[in-house]
Specification:
It is found in: Mitochondrion. With 175 residues, the protein is α+β, with helices and mostly antiparallel strands. The protein contains five helices and six strands, in the order H-H-H-H-E-E-E-E-E-E-H. 35% of the residues lie in helices and 21% in strands. The longest helix has 25 residues, at 66-90.
């Protein structure tokens, strides 16, 4: 059997299908399986030199391990999710769901927000129907965008407040 398996992917598939699964299929269908090159993933150190505004970034972004990033980003998303679920008790149109590091917030009339972890970059990304896409890095313990220095928490508070026509602040999330 091992000599037959080493000949070709088509031969292997034909050999495995023919006697065991479906003899009629093996006569009329042959799947071509291309050989894919092997890609070896490596982990690297995230290094910054200049922001999109031309300022030096070295030392601004908190240098944290993958484990610390996962802990901090999970806590942040869980706290936001819990507070949005509490908000749902008074405003039924607000719907928030956190699953596998992705927080989906439906907030009429604005639309749907997606807030998700980006572990390779150690960032949290926001897709907002109002302010568009943004990427947030952990800077001095706060999720801040390098583009304009704004905080993720403050942007969410502002857009939620405008949509619901109330003054909304996250209680358990530090800005």
């Amino acid at each position: 059997m091992f000599t037959r398996l080493s000949k070709s992917p088509q031969h292997t598939l034909r050999y495995l299908i023919k006697p065991r699964i479906a003899p009629s299929i093996s006569r009329c269908a042959v799947l071509r399986i291309p050989h894919a090159p092997m890609i070896h993933a490596t982990t690297g150190l995230r290094v910054y030199s200049i922001s999109t505004q031309g300022e030096q970034l070295d030392g601004k972004i908190d240098q944290i391990s993958d484990g610390e990033y996962n802990k901090l980003s999970n806590e942040y998303l869980e706290n936001i999710s819990e507070e949005l679920e509490e908000l749902n008790e008074d405003y039924e149109q607000v719907d928030a769901e956190l699953s596998h590091g992705v927080l989906t917030l439906t907030l009429p009339p604005n639309g749907t927000y997606v807030i998700n972890k980006q572990p390779p970059n150690k960032q949290i990304w926001l897709s907002s129907p109002i302010s568009g896409p943004k990427r947030y890095d952990l800077i001095q313990g706060q999720w801040r965008t390098l583009r304009d220095g704004s905080l993720l928490t403050e942007l969410l508070e502002q857009e939620i407040s405008e949509a619901l026509k109330i003054s909304f602040k996250f209680e358990s999330v530090s800005s």
